[in-house]
Structures are given as C-alpha cells and as structure tokens.
UniProtKB/TrEMBL annotation:
Occurrences of domain UDP-3-O-[3-hydroxymyristoyl] glucosamine N-acyltransferase non-repeat region (ranges): 22-89
Family affiliation: Belongs to the transferase hexapeptide repeat family. LpxD subfamily.
Active site per UniProt: H241
NCBIfam families on file: lipid_A_lpxD, PRK00892.1
GO cellular component annotations of the record: membrane
Keywords in alphabetical order: Acyltransferase, Lipid A biosynthesis, Lipid biosynthesis, Lipid metabolism, Repeat, Transferase
Protein name per the record: UDP-3-O-acylglucosamine N-acyltransferase
GO biological process, one term: lipid A biosynthetic process
Chemical reaction(s) catalysed: a UDP-3-O-[(3R)-3-hydroxyacyl]-alpha-D-glucosamine + a (3R)-hydroxyacyl-[ACP] = a UDP-2-N,3-O-bis[(3R)-3-hydroxyacyl]-alpha-D-glucosamine + holo-[ACP] + H(+)
C-alpha cells in the first residue's frame, strides 16, 4: 500500500517542501528511516537525524527551518506528533478495511448483520446474533447464540464471544480474548465435593471498550458483568463474574479482579494488581503495580503495596523497610549497652 506526499499532505492539511510525488509504503523512526518510509520529527533532541535519515518523507512542525541539506521530502504541519498519530490511525483503518465473507465460515440463518461486514474464514456466527454495520470479524473467531454487537466493532482472530453477550459501538476485542465465559462459581456439599453453580447472566461491553489479547471477562452468575464506556483493558487480565468497571478506567496486564468488585470511573490500575471480591473502588483512584487490594478505596486515593496502603505512606515506610537490617543492628547494640549498664 503506497501513499504519495500529496495524499499525506491532503490528509494532514500540511504543506510540502520537496517532491510531491514521493511515495512511501511503511513507517519508521527518524533515526532508522529507510527509503520508502514515512517518519516524523517532533522532539528537538532528534533534529540531528533529519539531515541523515533515509526516510522518503518526514512530517515536521511548521516552524522547522533546515540548517543544512536534507534529502527527505518534508510535510509541514501545526503539530508533527499529533499529525503522525493521525496518519497511524488512518493507516490502521485502511490496512484493516476488509469486506466480505470468506469461506469456509458458518453464519446461522437466523443471524442478522449490517452493511460492509468482514467475516473471516473458519469463523462462526450463532443463532439470533444481531450485528451492526462495518463490523470486522477475523478468522477463527466465535460468536455465540443471541449475541448483540454494535457498529464499527473489530474482533480479531481467535477471539471468543459467548452467548448473550452485548457489545457496544466502536469496541475492539483482540486475539485470544474471551468474553462471557462462566464465572468461577462452585459450592461444596456436605461431603466437601464442589458442584457447579449455573452462571445464567451475561457480559455487557458499552461503547469504545478495548479488550486486550488473552483477557477473560466472565459472565455474571445472575444479571450482568458490566464494562462501562471507554474502558481500556490490557492483555491477560481476569475479570470475574458480576464485576462492574466504571467508564474511562484503564487497567494494565495481568491484573485479576474477583467477583462482584465495583471499580469507579477514570481509575488507573497498574499491572499485576489483585483485587478481592465484593469491595468498592471509588472514582479517580490510582493503584500502583503489584498492589493487593483487600478493602474499599475512596475517591481519588493513590495506593501501593500488598495489602495496599496510601501511596505516600508506602514510600515513607519503604525507606525504613529497606534499612531494617541496619535498624535492627542499632537496636541490638543499644540493648547491649543498656544491659551492660544495669
């Protein structure tokens, strides 16, 4: 897929300095730029590379003035970083812009889908599925019975959407993710044997939710596991049954959230955090990586540690913790002096 400087300048509303017919087919860092690639210069620390880069086109700020000869064609814009991000987004949409139903694939006769569907080979769409416009389902994906999917949804290869799940508009579900698996519900009998509790609820993903590769979101025992609008989930996260995550919260990889925990809006949760069930975490909370959350967290708190405590208290405590051997030695010496004076 090739783009000319003229086409890129048109997308970015930029000005060309150089050959408008220059073509690019890939992206690169400015210091690693190769012929046929597009790059950008936003950080002044990298200015030196614009005079040596082999990239065919470079996006720069409008106030950039070359102090030496350059070979790359320039596209001048108001904000080079923002413009390059816009190009990345545009490139991604074009790259993923597949349409049509590949074979072999299975689509139930009772399923309904909108315009410009892409449905990859070896994928499955069950009974009574309702799917909106511009949905992309990549190969080997599974869409169970009675699933509802909105517009502009992308489901990557190998993702599994269990029955009754509801997915809003503009969601992205990456490879290997599982939405709607049974919650971890078992009850012991009088002999200590565990018996499965039927998981009769579902999962709801509201609009603009991203689900990372290998992440699992369990269906509710009753009712719904709910992921609110704008939530972003990293790879390999476990979200248990009946959890609710508030809008615009972001969660990093390998975090585990136990059943019926309620997480507020605009929270930031680091990697490998463990959250016990049946607690409430407020809005605008920050949880540092590898923390263990075993209590309710109030709005705006920043916590760290396991069990987690206030972030500032944790840092102060750590100063003492790392010096414990020295402190213990000092205390022992003081005790000896006291004992010798008795």
């Amino acid at each position: 897929m090739k783009f000319t400087a003229t086409q890129i300048a048109g997308i970015l509303e930029g000005d060309i300095v150089g050959d408008p017919n220059t073509e690019v087919s890939k992206l690169s860092k400015i210091e690693e730029g190769m012929e046929g690639s597009l790059t950008f210069l936003a950080n002044p620390k990298y200015t030196q590379y614009i005079y040596s880069t082999r990239a065919s086109i470079t996006i720069v700020n409008k106030d950039f003035i070359a102090e030496d000869n350059i070979k790359t064609t320039l596209i001048k814009v108001e904000d080079a970083y923002e413009s390059f991000s816009k190009i990345l987004e545009y490139y991604d949409k074009v790259k993923l812009n597949k349409v049509g139903i590949e074979q072999p694939a299975f689509i139930s006769e009772s399923a309904k889908y909108g315009k410009e569907l892409y449905f990859g080979a070896f994928s499955y769409m069950g009974d009574n599925v309702k799917m909106g416009d511009y949905v992309k389902v990549y190969p080997n994906a599974y869409i169970g019975d009675n699933v509802t999917i909105g517009n502009n949804v992308v489901i990557f290869a190998g993702a599994k959407i269990y029955s009754e799940s509801v997915i809003g508009d503009n969601c992205v579900i990456h490879s290997g993710a599982i939405v709607g698996a049974d919650g971890f519900g078992f009850a012991p009998d009088k002999n200590g044997e565990f018996h499965k509790i039927p998981q009769t609820g579902n999962v709801i993903l509201e609009d603009d939710v991203d689900v990372g590769a290998g992440t699992t979101i369990d269906r509710a025992t009753m009712g719904s596991t709910i992921i609110r609008k704008g939530v972003k989930l990293d790879n390999q996260i476990q979200i248990a049954h009946n959890v609710e995550i508030g809008k615009n919260t972001v969660i990093a990889a390998q975090t585990g959230i136990a059943g019926s925990a309620k997480i507020g809006e605009n929270c930031m949760i680091g990697g490998q955090v463990g959250i016990v069930g049946h607690i409430t975490i407020g809005n605008n909370v920050r949880i540092q990586a590898q923390s263990g959350i075993s209590r309710n967290i109030k709005d705006g708190e920043i916590v760290q540690g396991s069990p987690a405590i206030n972030y500032g208290d944790y840092n102060k405590s750590y100063v003492y913790f790392k010096n414990l051997p020295k402190l213990a030695k000092t205390i022992n010496q003081i005790e000896k002096k006291i004992n010798n004076n008795e």
